[in-house]
């Protein structure tokens, strides 16, 4: 008898050769991951170039992830995908030294299912232990406030704090630029040591806070580095540099200016 119910993973590519292209697929009704690129190129050594582009990934389970890139040694591009109705939209994690992964022009709708389902946080795009890359031109939309969904997010409660548009944790040289984050507890959540990164020209709409800095060192994210010139957007406590040109706004409540940081 054939199994019934949702697949665990829609597309899974593991330990392949020098290049991977995952393009123009429609993936839905999965319980764990829509598209999963895992440990490429694998034990054969060398490097692998990946491209995940123009896929439609939707209708995952309550704790499912849309696109996941894990343990890549090489370069990667996640471009122009539509990811909707998932717990976490796009995840890049544990890349090898000097690997660059760019996440560009994706559209993500993500849903936090609540603490009775999971105590983990939800996000649109997340980079964890990644060195080098751009998160640029993406649109991410969360379901904050958790009780009512899709804005306006004006209350600081645990459920809303678990809804994060873009999250960085333990990264280096990540540029977050020209993204739009809607109805999240934090449009951009920066956790721990994230060095030589910056956030420029992003728009945070109907989020409780534009940016949250969580346990970062004083020489962390947003401070000048060799590739950043003077585009500083973070002091010890708040966003500070005019050239960063990030915007905070509310569409649902005219005149409301959300917390910057």
How would you sum up this structure, described in words?
- By secondary structure, the chain is an all-beta fold.
- Helices cover 2% and strands 47% of the residues.
- The protein is built from 1 helix and 22 strands.
- It has a 15-stranded parallel β-sheet that branches. A 7-stranded parallel β-sheet has the order 2-4-7-10-13-16-19, with no helix packed on it.
- It is globular and about 55 Å long.
- It starts with 6 loop residues before the first strand and ends in a 12-residue tail after the last strand.
- The model is unreliable at 224-243 (pLDDT under 50).
Descriptive tags:
261 residues, mainly beta, 15-stranded parallel beta sheet, 7-stranded parallel beta sheet, 22 strands, 2% helix, globular
Question: How is the secondary structure organized here?
Answer:
Elements: E1 7-14, E2 19-23, E3 26-38, E4 48-53, E5 56-60, E6 65-70, E7 74-79, E8 82-86, E9 88-93, E10 100-104, E11 107-110, E12 122-128, E13 131-136, E14 139-141, H1 158-161, E15 163-169, E16 172-177, E17 180-182, E18 186-191, E19 198-200, E20 203-205, E21 209-214, E22 247-249
Give a short overview.
It is built from 1 helix and 22 strands.
Shape: globular
- Approximate helicity band: under 10%
Number of helices: 1
Could you give the count of β-strands?
22
Q: Which structural class is indicated by helix and strand composition?
A: mainly beta
What is the CA-based Rg, rounded? Answer: 18 Å
* Mean of residue pLDDT values: 85
Q: What is the rounded distance between the termini?
A: 55 Å
What is the N-to-C order of secondary-structure elements (H for helix, E for strand)? Answer: EEEEEEEEEEEEEEHEEEEEEEE
Unreliable residue runs: 224-243
What percent strand? over 45%
Biggest sheet: strands, sense, closure?
Answer: 15 strands, parallel
């Amino acid at each position: 008898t054939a199994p019934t119910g949702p697949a665990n993973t829609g597309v899974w590519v593991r330990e392949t050769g020098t290049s991977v292209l995952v393009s123009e697929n429609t993936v839905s009704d999965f319980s764990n991951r829509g598209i999963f690129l895992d440990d490429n190129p694998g034990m054969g050594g060398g490097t692998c170039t990946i491209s995940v582009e123009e896929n439609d990934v939707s209708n995952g389970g309550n704790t499912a992830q849309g696109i996941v890139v894990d343990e890549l040694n090489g370069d990667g591009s996640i471009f122009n995908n539509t990811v909707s109705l998932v717990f976490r939209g796009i995840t890049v994690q544990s890349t090898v030294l000097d690997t660059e992964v760019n996440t560009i022009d994706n559209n993500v709708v993500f849903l936090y299912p609540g603490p009775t389902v999971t105590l983990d946080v939800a996000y649109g795009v997340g980079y964890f232990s990644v060195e080098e890359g751009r998160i640029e031109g993406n649109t991410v939309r969360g379901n904050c406030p958790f009780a009512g969904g899709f804005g306006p997010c004006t209350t600081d409660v645990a459920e809303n704090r678990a809804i994060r548009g873009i999250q960085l944790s333990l990264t280096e040289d990540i540029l977050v630029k020209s993204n739009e984050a809607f109805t999240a507890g934090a449009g951009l959540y920066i956790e721990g040591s994230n060095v030589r990164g910056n956030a420029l020209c992003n728009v945070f709409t109907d989020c409780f806070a534009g940016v949250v800095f969580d346990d970062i060192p004083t020489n962390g994210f947003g401070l000048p580095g060799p590739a950043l010139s003077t585009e500083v957007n973070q002091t010890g406590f708040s966003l500070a540099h005019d050239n960063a040109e990030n915007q905070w706004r509310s569409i649902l409540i005219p005149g409301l200016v959300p917390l910057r940081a």
